[in-house]
Amino acid sequence: MEQSGTSALLRGAVQDLASDVVSALRGGDHVRVSGTGGVDGLAGGLGLAAVRVMGADLLLPHILSHTAPAPEALTVFRQTVETFPPRADAAPTVVWSHWAMSRTLRRLDAPLTGSPAGDEGAEPDAGWLDGATWQFLTHQLAVLAPLAVPGEDCAVARAARRRPVDVARGFVRAVRRRDWQQAAGAGRWLTLLDGVPEELGLETGLDFVELMGDSDPRVALQVEAARAMRWAGAVV
């Protein structure tokens, strides 16, 4: 029961953080990181775990708007990166998610602290995506949706660029399966890809995903991210 209760608290904290990010994306404001009672609450183990689940998307509004996050939010983000390094046997998506957080930290922290931009480390291996079925590829890209940002040049983004039609097929499959979170993540990638079939009707599809998955702030986050990038006319 205790584990179940902790899981429920973590889900709630993640949803609160996602709601904050959605609000910031819609209003161009700072992310408030209020998911577990403000920044002080986020400094605890549960709060850091929630930030780890959110990954680099916690600071997405600042990446897209080229604005500096609040120092408190950046501190929490840095603590999370330092507290949750991937284990040696971690899944590729976990390794890449941590890499994305490290890259985001370097991008946003250097201008504030005066530290050199440097390198966030060598890219992890992306060989597990080579020859992946379109279903598996879409699932993995949806998990790694925080990497779908304008100008991102990494092995995962390049894998997505090579297979826009397969990602489009995955988007349609996710919608038919009512997997709104996967559909939203795939749609976010598609917003940045060249060669997406026009008949897909991506904009209408994202509106539908938002409508059907509106009770989940993590779905709304991906849809709002896609809109923000589409409105900016960004292309990977």
Features:
236 residues, mainly alpha, 2 domains, 12 helices, 64% helix
Ordered list of secondary-structure elements with their pairings:
Blueprint (H helix, E strand, L loop, with lengths): L1 H26 L10 H5 L2 H10 L5 H6 L5 H13 L8 H22 L20 H10 L11 H8 L1 H13 L3 H13 L9 H11 L4 H15 L5
In short:
By secondary structure, this protein is mostly helical. It is built from 12 helices and no strands. The longest helix is centred in the N-terminal third of the chain and has 26 residues.
Protein architecture, described:
- The chain has 236 residues and is mostly helical.
- The chain folds into 2 domains: 1-124, no CATH class; 125-236, no CATH class.
- The protein has 12 helices and no strands.
- Helix 1 (2-27) packs parallel to helix 12 (217-231) and helix 9 runs antiparallel to helix 10 (180-192).
- 42% of the residues are buried.
- Residues 34-40 and 111-119 have low confidence and may be disordered.
